[in-house]
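Quick question, first post here. What does this chain look like in 3D?
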Amino acid sequence: MRIKLKNYPHRKSLFLIRFFLGLPKSLFPKAFKGWADDKIKNMGVHSTTHIDAPWHYSPTVDGKPAKTIDEIPLEWLFAPGVKIDVSGKADFEEITVADIENDLAKTAARIEPGHIVLIHTGRDKLQGNDYVDRGLGMSRAATEWLIDQGVKVMGIDQWGFDLPLRYLVKKAKETKNAELFWQAHLVGAEKEYLHMEQLTNLQALPSHGFKVAVFPLKLKGASAAPARVVAILDN
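> Answer (accepted):
Ran it through. C-alpha cells below.
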C-alpha cells in the first residue's frame, strides 16, 4: 500500500503569509525564507510499519468491546523484547508452537508476561518486490500460545501476520476450509492482543537482552496506527 508525500517548499508559504495573515513582505525577517510543509496522501492506518488494535480483528473480545488504538495502555508498548528466528522456513509455511519452543531452547531466551515478542522471518528484504504475496504465517496455535504466556504485543517483519492473503484465499477455495482464512488475526476475537506488521531490521537484534518501544499515533477510534518501533539494547 503505497503512500504519497507531497512536499511544499519554503517559498510556497510566503504567499499565504502575505495575503492570508496580512504580514507585508517588508516585515519578513531577513533570515526568513518561508516555512516548509508536507501533506501525506493515500495513507491508511495499516500502511507502513503499524500496530493493529484488537478492534481491527473484531468488534468484541471475549464478548466485551474491543479496544481501539487510543485505548491501549502505554505500558503494554514499552517492555523487554524477545526475538524468535524462523527465517529458515520456506514461504507459505505456518509458524508453529514447536518453532517458537525450539528457538527458545536454542537461544535460552525466556518469554515472561508483558514481554514483546518479535517474529523474525527475514521477509522485510522483499519490500519493493513480492512483499505482499510471499512470506510465512503465524498459526492460530502459536498466536494463542504466546498470549497464554502473558504476551500482549507481538510483531512480524513481513507484510502481514497471517499467511499471504491471496495464498490464503486460494487454499481456502481448494480445501473448502472455512477456518483457514485470517486464523491468527481472529484469535483476537477471543483473546486480547495486538500485533505489529511490516517491521524491519530484526536480523540486527539478539534473541533477548533488549527493550522494545512502540510509538503509534494516537488516533481516536482507529483500528491501527502507523508506528515508530525502536529496539533499545542493554549494555
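The mean pLDDT is 96.
The CA atoms of residues 79 and 211 lie 5 Å apart.
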